[in-house]
Every structure is written in C-alpha cells, then in structure tokens.
Design a protein that fits this description.
Layout: E1 11-14, H1 22-25, E2 31-36, H2 40-43, H3 46-53, E3 58-62, H4 71-84, E4 88-93, H5 95-107, H6 116-120, E5 131-135, E6 147-152, E7 155-160, E8 168-171, H7 181-199, H8 207-229, H9 234-247, H10 261-273, H11 277-291, H12 297-308, H13 315-332, H14 347-358, H15 372-381
Parallel strand pairs: 1-8, 2-3, 2-4, 4-5, 5-8
Antiparallel strand pairs: 6-7
Helix pairs in contact: 4-5, 7-8, 7-9, 7-11, 8-9, 10-11, 10-14, 11-13, 11-15, 12-13, 14-15
Bound molecules: 5,6-dihydroxy-NADP and zinc ion (ZN).
C-alpha cells in the first residue's frame, strides 16, 4: 500500500438519547446557528430534542436547506451568520444539511470576493467557523469527513477542507426511524458505492483495507433489505448508521487507489435530471463494472468470492455473476439500475458527457483513463 497520513478527529456520540450530549459538545458561550432542511426534524421530534439540549445557549435556527443543497440558499445562511454574529454552526439533518453547513462555515470566513470560487476554482479554504452535527440520514459519511457537495443551477461541485470537518457528530439511530423507504434505500446504496469506489480498483497489498471494505459491503447487503422489510428494527438502523459512517470517514481509503468515476458521472445525473444521489450511482455502477471489467479484473474476482461467495467456474463467468448480484442487490433495495428505469434514453448521454467536460472533471477513474469516449461507453451500457 502507499504511504498515508490518517486523522479523523470528529468526536462521535453514538446511540440512543445522545442528542442531549450537545449541551457538552458545543463550547459554552458559543453563539450557535442551527441549520436544518425541509422540516423532517420538526415532525419526528429531533428539533425538540435539539432545542432542549441547546437550552443554555444563545441560538437561532435557519431552515430550508434542500436536498442537493443550493448555493443561493447557503449564501442566505452566510448573510444570516454575518449579520447575527454567530460563531458556531450546528447542522441537523442528512448529508445535504451537513454539506451545506460546511460550505456556510467556509464561505462566512472567505476573504476573497466571491465564495463560489471555493467550489468552481477550488480556492483554498484558509479559515472556517467550527461546526458540529446531528445526523438523521445514514448515507454520505459527511458527519465525520472533509467533503461537501453544493449545487448551483446545473452544476454540482465538491470541495474538501479539513477545516470543515465536524468537531463532533451525534449519531442516534432512532432519529432514522422516520425515514421513508426511498431514503433508507438511497442511504444504503450510497454507502455501498462509497466502499466500492475505494475497493473495486486494482490490488494494492492493502489487506486490512480490503477486509474492512468487504465487511462493510457484507453488512450493508445483510441489513439494507431487512431495514426495508422491518422499518421499526432499531438494531438494523444502528448497523446501517455505523457502516455508512465508516464507509466514508477516510479509513478504508488509506493508502489505496480510488475510483470515484461512478460518483462523478452520478453527480451529472443529479444536476441535469434531478435523480436522487444514491439512485444516480446505482444507474451507473453496474454498467461501469461491465465496461471496466478488464481493468478491474483482479478485484472483481476478489469481490465475487469474498462478498458473494462466487468461487466456482471460469473467471469471466464469475465476474458476470458478481455484476448480476450487485444489480440484484440494488433492485432488492428498490432503486433504479439503468437510465431507462429512470425514464431517460440515449439523448441524455450528450448532456451528461458535456457536463463533465464543461466542469473540467475528466479524466476519471483509479488510473485516470476514463475520458469522454469511455464515459459515453459506460452510459451506453447503462441504457
Ligand atoms: O430536508 P428534510 O425535511 O430534513 O428531509 C430530508 C430530505 O428530503 C429527508 N430526511 C433526512 N433525514 C430524515 C429525513 N426524512 C425523514 N426522517 C429523517 N430522519 O431525506 C431527504 C434527503 O436528505 P439529504 O440530506 O439530501 O440526503 P443524503 O444524506 O443522501 O445527502 C445527499 C447529499 O450529500 C451529497 C450528495 O451529493 C447530496 O448532495 N454527498 C455528500 C458526500 C460527502 N459529504 O462526503 C458524499 C456523497 O457521495 C454525496 O455526494
Ligand atoms: Zn455518495
């Protein structure tokens, strides 16, 4: 494996009743802006729990951060932070609220003319407000990582800074019991693909990372369908919440090649056609596995054997089965696995390829050998 530096200082408070820990987790005397989404936290009791825990603080709330958080909404939050003199941010919600809060934390301290440069030009983040989070949707890993994804018009762009890593994350699986089946599924498949992006590349003599990754994949395959069948089982939600966090907290990506082509292409599907993040990935991944099967051959065979128990037959047939099993898992989770499933046809492909080109995101893949022609071939395989 390659050399690496690993640090993940986010303090995790995991389990029932942990929202009360907010009172200790936020420094006393902080002036707190709590940011949330479209209102799910008001109907499932999370808002009230947060309000009770914040009783000793000077705090206000900013609601309305939408799924795939929008730049204009976040800039309104930045104005509010500046006008109100807030010095600590608390995100309460899913990945969109946490990502949006990360951007607000950086943009509020940005010294340049226009914070859009943080996303569009990858302008360095030199300062950010401290933030913590209460996670309500296990999926993105945003609760302990340094990434954030923001949308403006039809551009969905990411930035990365250790300055926006949450200081703490409260993970109470009970907060996820109010999720609709669609969001349970989106979260499970998103976490699954996060593992795949860091695992299904080429062998790198990283046995620990491989076994951790396989353990997470097996856990998601076991618990995801059960959580759809039994939406009241809190033990399943706990496993899913922890698996999704570990899937993208940096650990399994240490010292190994990483792909992320499925995500980059998926982001274009969301930006142009409004497809939920998780579902954008399940549309792309089976076709990407097929198109890249030669480059990923060794890891596909390892994945077939260790994740699906496929160890008999010709190698090419084993790879076929592993791709079929991946698709079957996604279908079991009720998500789309082709462009046609999402109501799209070949006319979408030009738009998607142009989006990647215009945002200067090519080439993609663990070897940097997926250009426009290869993306086009992957998407043709996803029809
Ligand atoms: O807005 P509210 O009313 O809260 O409703 C949300 C939203 O409609 C709802 N929801 C969340 N928790 C709930 C709940 N409904 C009922 N009960 C609960 N406990 O779920 C809907 C979707 O929420 P959202 O935050 O958009 O979902 P998710 O966590 O999947 O986040 C997706 C965003 O994260 C980005 C995606 O691109 C997308 O913008 N990602 C961030 C990453 C990161 N920071 O590392 C990596 C990922 O690959 C991903 O790109
Ligand atoms: Zn994702």
């Amino acid at each position: 494996m390659d050399n690496f530096v690993y640090e993940n200082p986010t303090r995790i408070h995991f389990g029932s009743g942990q929202i009360a820990a907010l009172a200790e987790a936020i420094p006393s005397g902080a002036r707190v802006l709590m940011l949330y989404g479209g209102g799910s936290i008001k109907s499932n009791g999370v808002y009230d729990q947060v309000a009770a825990a914040l009783a000793g603080f000077d705090w206000e709330a900013f609601g309305g951060i939408e799924p795939n958080p929008r730049y204009d909404t976040l800039m309104r939050a930045v104005e509010r932070v500046r006008a109100g003199g807030f010095d600590y941010l608390l995100a309460v919600g899913g990945g969109s609220v946490i990502d949006g809060t990360k951007f607000v934390a950086a943009a509020a301290c940005y010294a340049g003319d226009d914070p859009w440069a943080i996303l569009a030009e990858q302008a360095p983040v030199r300062e950010a407000l401290p933030l913590g989070c209460v996670l309500t949707l296990p999926a993105t890993g945003s609760e302990t990582n340094i990434n954030a994804v923001v949308t403006r018009a039809e551009r969905k762009l990411a930035f990365y800074s250790s300055l926006v890593r949450p200081r703490f994350a409260i993970l109470d699986p009970a907060t996820t019991l109010s999720l609709a089946p669609r969001q349970i599924a989106n979260g499970v498949v998103d976490a699954f693909v996060h593992v795949i992006e860091q695992y299904l590349t080429y062998p790198a003599d990283a046995r620990v990372q491989d076994r951790f990754a396989e353990g997470l994949l097996l856990t998601l395959i076991e618990t995801g369908p059960k959580a759809l069948d039994d939406p009241n089982d809190l033990t399943l939600r706990a496993d899913i919440m922890w698996a999704a966090s570990l899937a993208l907290n940096g650990l399994i990506g240490c010292g190994v090649p990483q792909d992320w082509a499925t995500h980059r292409i998926g982001h274009e599907l969301t930006a142009h056609f409004g497809i939920d993040h998780g579902r954008s990935l399940t549309i792309v991944l089976p076709a990407l596995m097929q198109a890249r099967r030669a480059a990923k051959r060794d890891k596909l065979l390892q994945y077939a054997e260790r994740v699906f128990g496929i160890d008999q037959g010709e190698p090419e047939a084993r790879i076929d089965q592993a791709i079929a099993q991946t698709r079957a898992f996604f279908q079991r989770m009720g998500v789309e696995t082709s462009l046609a499933d999402a109501g799209l046809d070949a006319t979408a492909i030009d738009t998607l390829v142009a989006g990647l080109e215009d945002n200067h995101l090519l080439p993609l893949g663990e070897r940097g050998d997926i250009g426009s022609a290869e993306v086009r071939a992957i998407l043709e395989g996803a029809l």
